[in-house]
Amino acid sequence: MGETPALSTGRRWFFPSALLHELDPDAARAGRRPRRTARDWAVDFSCFLLAVVVGVTAVEALADNPHVPDGLAVADQVTGALACAAVWLRRRWPLGLAVALTPLGIFSDTSGGAGLIALFTLAVHRPFRYVAWVGGVNVALVPLFYWVRPEADVPYPVAVLFAGLLTVAAVGWGMFVRAKRQLMVSLQDRARRAETEARLRAEQAQRLAREAIAREMHDVLAHRLTLLSVHAGALEFRPDAPPAETARAAGVIRESAHEALQDLREIIGVLRAGEPDDTGRPQPTLAALDTLVAESREAGMKVSLDHRVEDPAAVPSSVGRTAYRIAQEGLTNARKHAPGTDVTVTVTGTPGTGLTVRVHNPPPEGEVPPVPGSGQGLIGLTERATLAGGRLEHGPTPQGGFEVRAWLPWG
């Protein structure tokens, strides 16, 4: 039986098996009958003992009642003993037991306790429509019973009223127990659903974090590896380059490879931990755009930065990080597909009007060696800008160059 969120193994004995069965979806789907718990055995024995005590009390009343012949008293006692034994079947056939004991109650005093227990069990385990029919018939038969078997010392109206109230009380108590169990099942079901939803939300958050890490990995490594590719290609096509230029290119290659390995090591560590990176290096913002441009210039690119934002620190970190990644991807693409051109990076905007980022390069001179690329960088940037509430456009210009232009909200 599956464990429920709120019931520990040590406490399961305290709950009825029917409730545990309803709380166990595997058992319910398999159609297995619930096994009696220790509490069930204790309750069943108490019900049997109560039925026996009521029957013994009725035997003494039969002996003092002159309206009951000796033969009928013996038959009454036999019937009462069978009814008390049938109490052990109340969990398996609650409706059948209540229906069977209803006519016996007309002729048997000693089966009265078993009949009340059967009504109580029916109210606990079956819907109200069954309880209403069987309970209504029992209440209607009370006057007939005391008309056939009048009490010796109790007036007829008092006996009928007392028996009727006792029957209604047994049914009401059973319905109360049923409502309480249904409430507990409902609360347990809500707790189970809340656990499931929380787990799904956690998995979704982890998946989104991993997707964000993958985007960061593409943006960062593409920038680093493009530097490696460009300078390695320059060394390959210019073996006669001056020693100073060769040394500078080798230094850029070494530094870019070192930083790429460090970034990759951090990203792999985050993916292994399955958690977002809260302890690594700070994420870049718009204030780091000058450093990015300086790094590109050191790598040999011709980059002009037109930074018209008065206070870059005032830009929200998420917007600034997106703007930084857009500029980084634009410079990476320009370095791959238009080497040697003058690249212009323009950043403008004010609070309320939004932030505009533009990366433009003219057409390259001469033939450019083919550089492999899947176009996923621009697709990822478009998605990043859309998620930030902005938009991104990219494509060739009428003069033959290429432009990446993005607008991001800055409230």
From TrEMBL:
The chain crosses the membrane at residues 41-63, 97-123, 130-148, 154-176. It is an enzyme of class 2 (transferase). Residues 210-274 form the Signal transduction histidine kinase subgroup 3 dimerisation and phosphoacceptor domain. Its EC number is 2.7.13.3. The keyword Cell cycle does not apply. Pfam families: HisKA_3. InterPro entries: HATPase_C_sf (IPR036890), Sensor_HK_TwoCompSys (IPR050482), Sig_transdc_His_kin_sub3_dim/P (IPR011712). GO terms for molecular function: ATP binding; phosphorelay sensor kinase activity; protein dimerization activity. Keywords: ATP-binding, Kinase, Membrane, Nucleotide-binding, Phosphoprotein, Transferase, Transmembrane, Transmembrane helix, Two-component regulatory system. The keyword Kinase applies. It catalyses: ATP + protein L-histidine = ADP + protein N-phospho-L-histidine. One of its GO terms (cellular component) is membrane. It comes from the Bacteria. PANTHER family: NITRATE/NITRITE SENSOR PROTEIN NARX-RELATED, NITRATE_NITRITE SENSOR PROTEIN NARQ. This is histidine kinase. It comes from Streptomyces collinus.
